[in-house]
Amino acid sequence: MTTAVGIKMLKENLSAYVALAAKGERVIITDRGREVAELGPLSADRQAMMALVEEGVASWSGRKPTLPSPLPIDVDLAGAVLEDRR
Question: In the CATH scheme, what is the homologous superfamily, with its name and number, of domain 2-41?
Answer without folding.
Answer: YefM-like domain (3.40.1620.10)
